[in-house]
Each structure stands twice: as structure tokens, then as C-alpha cells.
Amino acid sequence: MARIVMKFGGTSVADLDRIKNVARHVKREVDAGHEVAVVVSAMSGKTNELVGWVQNMPKVAGADHSIYDAREYDAIVASGEQVTSGLLAIALQAMGINARSWQGWQIPIRTDNAHGAARILEIEGTEIIRRMGEGQVAVVAGFQGLGPDNRLSTLGRGGSDTSAVAIAAAVKADRCDIYTDVDGVYTTDPRIEPKARRLKKIAFEEMLEMASLGAKVLQVRSVELAMVFKVRTFVRSSFEDPDAPGMGDLLNPPGTLICDEEEIVEQEVVTGIAYAKDEAQISLRRLADRPGVSAAIFGPLAESHINVDMIVQNISEDGSKTDMTFTVPSGDVEKALRVLGDNKDKIGYDVVQNESGLVKVSVIGIGMRSHAGVAATAFQALAEKGINIKAITTSEIKISILIDGPYAELAVRTLHSCYGLDKS
Ligand code: ADP
Ligand code: ASP
Ligand code: MG
């Protein structure tokens, strides 16, 4: 007997038939004698709809145009998961399984106060464990928790993955299965490159990079938790026949295992390609080249909660003036320009330019640590397709390249094939 946490994403619970199908996956594990807790997302599209409703409500007069009451935002957007948790509990009961829904506050899943992007601080797992021991399946609403202000909180988009891994850690589960609409983690988004291959295993560090550089198959925080708490996490499909051979395999279920790099026998140099759309570039021209100028730019941007990503500073030609270019999410450009305008005298620049609709493509692989020439291969391949590079950043296990938006898919496919990822 094992203890298993099963998480089902939005497309897996998109309608009543799909929820009944999810119940069959759960039944398979219960019938095998395992203790099971389930985490569900809202029906696909539901959270977007709820977010849209919030955004279309009138704003408080004079408030920053992007600000609405984050506590009420959470109260509204958390509702999608409440519905699916109840529906799945009913579907399971109809199959003769003892099941009960749980909202974040009932467990409770305690979070910090960062409404809209809260972090889980603590999960009280005892009651769930006790009930699992009695043969009851807990169906937990993902994405939500209880803030220190005693109000509903949500974990940021894609947060049900994090709910699932955190619950798996709290109840000391043997396995956490993330069921989605693809049958594992691929070498790149299979919707962009049909030749992408499913990975049998991927190292935590690589999955962290893939997720934070745009592969939305797992929320970044869920990978961090899986790595820290050593949760054995699989990504697998809810769209396969729940009773097909091998689906109930305890040690090697079909899908991709996220694991320590030591567990990966044949490590390739490059493991995957990720991309992030909607990046924007801001350039400050003819800046004073003196100590403190970066602090004068990025300090106020950070205080305004603007997430700056790539930063490129030119070498000054004459020792007195230079240019600085950096990227922010497209949605933050206006706010960033306002902050830079307000601080123009302190920073001391001549003009500010900006360009939106850019894309960051990234090459990821632990094998890069010990191989030279990985970046040069990417640059050559992109050049052959006439794709211009606007900025580059690198770390030990990744190379990120900023390009014009319309080239995104071509760049992903080009990088995918230049490292031979399309060949098995
Ligand atoms: P869910 O609703 O189940 O949480 P998501 O839409 O959040 O599902 O994540 C699954 C999607 O992630 C897939 O449909 C796929 O298009 C996308 N994706 C992006 N990169 C990858 C990748 N490297 N491997 C697998 N899926 C990926
Ligand atoms: N329903 C939430 C979202 O769409 C959380 C999730 O699905 O993981 O972001
Ligand atoms: Mg998701």
C-alpha cells in the first residue's frame, strides 16, 4: 500500500464527463489499496473568466489603474476550484468511494499575506491523514489557502500544482502525480513542435529552469517544493484510458519523473527548449557612467514590484556616457516608464525607448556545465534562419535569447532541431 496525491489540471476537469473520467483514475488507485488525496484545478477557462470579471469592475477613484482589492480578487478567483472539488467528490461517491471535498481554509493550508501570489507556509495534514487511514479520499480545492488575515488567498496562476506537491510533502506521500493534457514533460512545448519528445526523467534544476523560463506544464514553486521536500513527482496524462495496462504501476507509472540528477543515467548536453512570450525591452540612452546609476534605476523599479529580467549595459565609448537595456513583462511597460520618468533627474539619462511583443527563447541542460560551444551552436542556427538576437543571458545550465515576437515558433523549432532533440 502507498500514499498517493493525484492532481488534475483544468483540461482534465473541463466538464462533467471529464470529471467522471478523473473519478475512474482515482478509483483505480483506491481499488489497488492505496491511500489517496486528490487536488483539483478549476474547469479550464474558468479562472480566466473570473479574473476577467474582476478586471472589468469599476476601480476606486484615483487608484493606480492596475490595482484592485487583492483580497476580493482571491475570494472571486478561488471559487472555480470549490466547484470542481465538490463535483469530483460527488462523482466518486456515485462510484461507491468514500470521498469528501476540502477547501484550503478547512485543512487549513496556511499562506502568507501576498494575496494573488501567496506562498504556502504550513499545511495541517493530520485530519487528512486520519481520514485517509479510514479509507476516505480527500478532494482538495487547489490554488487556494488561508492568509494570516483569516481570508482566502490564492497561489498565483498555475498554483494547483503547488497545492498538490505541498500536500504530498505534508502527508508524506510516496508519490505526487500531476495529471494534465500531455503525457509528460517534453523536450519543448509539443503544441509548438510536434517533433518534441517525451522525457522519461528530468532533473529538478532543469525543470525549475524550464518552468521559470516559460514551460507552463508545472508552476515554478511546485518544482521548488518537490526538490526541497524530495517529493517523487510524476507528470502524466489524464486523457489515457484509466484502466489501460501499466496505468496503475506503482514504481514506474507512465509519464515523466522529476528527480535528482544522479538518477538520470544518460544525461544529454541539452534537455529542453522553453519560451516566454510578452517580453518588453526598455533602453535608457546616454546614461551617466558612474557608480550608483544601476541602483538609481533598478531600486525604484523593484519598489514598484516590477520584475526586471535581462539587463545589458554597454561599455562606455568615452568614459562618461553609456546605454542600459533591460526587459520587463509587456504588461509592466507603462508602469516602468512612469517610474523611470519620475526618477529621471536622479538617474540622469537622455531618452528612454521601449519595444513590446518580444519573446525569450531558452536552451536548458545540466550537461552544459561540462560542454563548450552550446551557445555558439544556438547563435549559428538562429543566424541561418535570419533571426536577429536582441539580448542574451546565460547561467551554468541555460542560455536565454531575446528575439522579435513573430519569430518565436521558428526559433523554438530551430533550437530544438540544432541540438538533435527531435531525434530519439
Ligand atoms: P493544467 O491545466 O493541467 O495545469 P497546463 O496548461 O497548465 O495544464 O500545462 C500543460 C501544458 O503545458 C501543455 O498542454 C503544453 O502545451 C504546455 N507545455 C509547455 N511546455 C511544455 C513541455 N516542455 N512539456 C510538456 N508540456 C509543455
Ligand atoms: N485554476 C488556476 C489557474 O488557472 C490554478 C491552476 O489551474 O493551477 O491558474
Ligand atoms: Mg497548470
Description:
This protein is of the alpha/beta class and 424 residues long. It folds into two domains: 3-261, Acetylglutamate kinase-like (Carbamate kinase, 3-Layer(aba) Sandwich); 272-418, VC0802-like (2-Layer Sandwich). It has 13 helices and 18 strands. The protein has helices at residues 16-31, 46-55, 70-77, 79-94, 126-133, 160-170, 204-212, 220-228, 293-303, 333-342, 344-347, 374-384, 408-418; strands at residues 3-8, 35-40, 99-102, 109-111, 120-123, 137-141, 144-146, 152-154, 175-180, 201-203, 233-237, 256-259, 272-288, 311-313, 321-329, 351-364, 391-395, 398-404. The protein has an eight-stranded mixed sheet, sandwiched between helices. The protein has a six-stranded antiparallel sheet with strand order 14-15-13-16-18-17. β4 and β5 (120-123) form a beta hairpin. The longest helix has 16 residues, at 16-31. It is globular and about 75 Å long. The model has no long low-confidence stretch (mean pLDDT 95). Bound molecules: adenosine-5'-diphosphate (ADP), aspartic acid and magnesium ion (MG). Magnesium ion (MG) binds at residues 9, 158, 161, 216. Magnesium ion (MG) binds next to loops.
Major beta sheet summary: 8 strands, mixed
Domain module tally: 2
Q: Order of strands across the widest beta sheet?
A: 3-6-2-1-9-11-12-10
The CATH topology name of the largest domain reads Carbamate kinase
Query: How big is the Rg?
Result: 23 Å
Enumerate the spans where pLDDT stays under 50 for 5 or more consecutive residues. none
% residues in beta strands: 25-35%
- Assigned CATH class of the largest domain: Alpha Beta
What's the CATH H-level superfamily name of the largest domain?
Acetylglutamate kinase-like
Distance between the termini: 35 Å
